[in-house]
Amino acid sequence: MKQTLQIEATIDQAIELGLRADEFEMIKEILGRTPNFTETAIYSVMWSEHCSYKNSILWLKTLPKDGPHMLIKAGEENAGLVDIGGGLGCVFKIESHNHPSALEPYQGAATGVGGINRDIFTMGARPIAQLNSLRFGDIKEARTKWLVKGVVKGIGDYGNAFGIPIVGGEVFFDECYNTNPLVNAFSAGIIDTKKIISATAKGPGNPVFIVGSSTGKDGIAGAAFASKDITEDSANDLPSVQVGDPFMEKLLLEATMELANTNAIVGMQDMGAAGITCSTCEMSAAGNVGMEIYLDKVPTRQENMLPYEILLSESQERMLVVVKKGEEETVKAIFDKWDLHAEEIGHVTDSGRICYYMNGELVGDVPAESLVLGGGAPQYKREFSEPAYYKEFKKFNINKVQKPKDLKEVGFALLGLPNIASKKWIYEQYDSMVGTATMTTNRPSDAGIVFIKGTEKGLSLTVDCNARFVNADPEIGTMIAVSEAARNIVCSGGIPSAVTNCLNFGNPYNPECYWQFVGAIKGMSAACLKFETPVTGGNVSFYNQSNIKGKEVPVFPTPTIGMIGIVPNIDNVMTLDFKKKGDLIFLVGDYTNDISSSEYLATYLGIKESPAPYFNLEKEFKMQKAVQGLIESKLINAAHDVSDGGLYVTLVEMAIPQDLGFDIVTDAEIREDSFLFGEGQGRVVVTLTEEMESYFIEFMMKMNVNITLLGHVTKGKMQVDEEHFGFISEAKAIFQNALGNMLDDKN
C-alpha cells in the first residue's frame, strides 16, 4: 500500500476545528509527529465534548452502576441492559439532539429519534417504545412556536413511519430556552439475552462492513458543532444537521434483526456522532485491536468527497459491522434482500491503530485508544463555585406572599398555563398504538405501559425533570427528578429498575454552570442508590445557552431522568382516573406549608426566586413502598402523584377522563394556596371504595406513612371547603385546549 505524508496541520486549523492549543500539543506527543489535516479533524470530533465527555467523565464515574437487574453496565455497550426475567432483557437509553434542533427543528428532532433507536437495535434488541423530553422558550415568541411545531412534526413523522409507538414524555416552557431548546429522545427495546450483539471488534483478518445508507455531506462535524455555544453565526453550521429517512431505518432494523439470528457477526455499532471515525475507533479500542479502512470503498452520495468528509459525515441509517471471515456472503445476502448497502471497507488488524486509506494512499494513522472515552481522550477536572443566586433564593419567605382572594380563579388560570395544560396538541401527532403493545393509550397512567408479548409482564417507562427545581437547588432538584420518575413508575403499578440520563447544562468552563452539574450528579447518585435504580448510561450535553436581552444565559440545568420499571403482572397496572361517584379520595404522604418553585409562585405570581420545594428522600421512599403495596394488595382503584400545579391540578387530571368531579376539605393548619397549589414532594392521591377504607387504613398504619382523607368523588362538580369551584367540563375545556390555542394564536 502506497504511504503518503500529507501536509501537516497548523495550530490555527486545530483551533478552528475546536481543539485547544494544549490539546494539539498532546496529539503531537501521541503521534510522535505533527498530525495532518485529516488526523486533526479526527481528533477534533473524538475529543469534542459530545464524544469524549472530557469535562464530565470524572464525575460520571461516581454514579451508581450496580443494581439487582443489571446485565450490561454504563459504558460497556451502546446502551444499558437490564434483566426482566424469562431470558429477556430491556435495552434502553436517552440522548440529546439539542443543537441540531435549534437550527433545523424538523430534521434535528427526527434524526434524534432515529439515532436513539439505532443504539437499541444495534445491540440486537427490537425497539418497542419511545418517549421524549422537550424544553422550549417563551411560548408567546414566534420562534418558539416555529421550534415546537418543527420538533413535534419531526418526532412524529420519524417515529410514526419507523413504526415504534411514542408512549409518553414531558414538555416544559421557560424563556431560558429561547435560543437553545432541548430535545431528548428515549427508546427501549426487548432482547433475547442470549443474542446480544457487542460493539467490540475482534479477530485480526475479520472483514469490516459498512451497512445501510450511503454517506453524504450532511452532519459533517456534528459532534464538534454540538460542543459549542449557539450564536448568531450558527446558521452557518447547518451542514452539521443530519437528514433522516425513517423508511430506510425500518429496513435497517429488519435486516439487523435477521442478522442477529445468524452466527455471522463479531460486533456492530451505530454510526452516530462522528460517523465512521467514532465507530472504527471505539470498536477497535474495545477489542484492543486495530483496523485498516479503505474510504474509497464507502458508498457515497456525492462525488469527490474528501477523506475527512467521509470520516466525519454523520449521515443517518448507517452501521459498522465486523463479520466473521468466511461469512461475508451471508451478510451481503441479508442486506441485498432489504435493498441496503453492505460493502466491505476494510479488515481488523492486531496493530491497535486505525489506518485510513483513500485510493491507495494512507491519509490517516492514529492509535484507537488515544481517541476514546476513558482511554487517551483528555479528562479535565473543572473548577466550580456556588452562584450568588443560590443563597438569595433561600431567603424566600412564604409569609411575605399575599394570599389570593379567589382560589377558583387561580386554579382555572393554572390549568391554562403551558407547563400545566394538557399536551394533547403534541401527543395527538404521535402514534401510540402502532405495534399493539401500548396499554395506556386509553387508560391514563402516570407512566407509559407497554405489554411484553408472550409474557404476563409489562414495562413501565417515564422521563422526568423539573428544571426549575434543579436550578433552585441542583442537588435536591435532581434527587426530586429521580424520585418523581420512581413515583410515576410505582403509581403505574411498576417496580423501579434502572435509569438512563440526559444531562443538559450550560458552558462547563463557567464555574457556576459546572457547580450545577456537580450538584446534579451528587443528587442523582443519592437518589439512585436509595431506589436501587443504577445509571445504565445516557449522555451529557453542555453549551446550552440562550440570548436573553442581549446577555448569554445558560438554560436551567436539566438532568432529564429516563427510568424503566417492571410490571410483574399486567393485571396490576394502575391508572390515574377516578372510577365512580362516591369513591373516597385520600392523600398518601405529608403536607407542608410550601409553595417554593411552584408554577403557582413562579408563573402565576411571577416570583422567580425561591428554593426547591420540600423534599425528604427517606419519607419519599417509604411513601412509594406504601403505594406499591396498596396496588399489589388491590386496595385502591386509582393513583396519581402530586407534581406540577399541586393537589388541585392532580385532582382535575384524575377527574377529566371519566368526567367526574371532587369534593374535598383543606387542612386548617396549612395555607389554602399552599394546600391546593404547592408542589412539596412525596405525595400521591389515591381513591378507593368505602368498603376498602378500613383495610386501607390498617395497611397504612402498618407502613407508618401519613394519610389524609381529602373527600370523595362527585358526579362532575368541583368543590373545595364547601365552595363551588365550577364543573369539570369547564376545567376540561381550558386544560385540553390551552396549549393548542397558544400555538395556533387563538388567544
Describe this structure in words.
There is one protein chain. With about 750 residues, the chain is an alpha+beta fold. The protein has a domain at about 390-455 and about 470-480 and about 560-745: PurM-like C-terminal domain (Phosphoribosyl-aminoimidazole Synthetase, Chain A, domain 2, Alpha-Beta Complex). About 35% of the residues lie in helices and about 25% in strands. It contains 25 helices and 27 strands. The strands form five sheets. Strands 8-10-7-11-9-12-13 form a seven-stranded mixed beta sheet. It has a seven-stranded mixed beta sheet with strand order 22-24-21-25-23-26-27. α7 (about 105-120) packs parallel to α8 (about 140-160) and α8 packs parallel to α10 (about 245-260). The radius of gyration is 26 Å and the shape is globular. The chain starts with 10 loop residues before the first helix and ends with a helix. Mean pLDDT is about 90; it is low at about 220-230 and about 235-240.
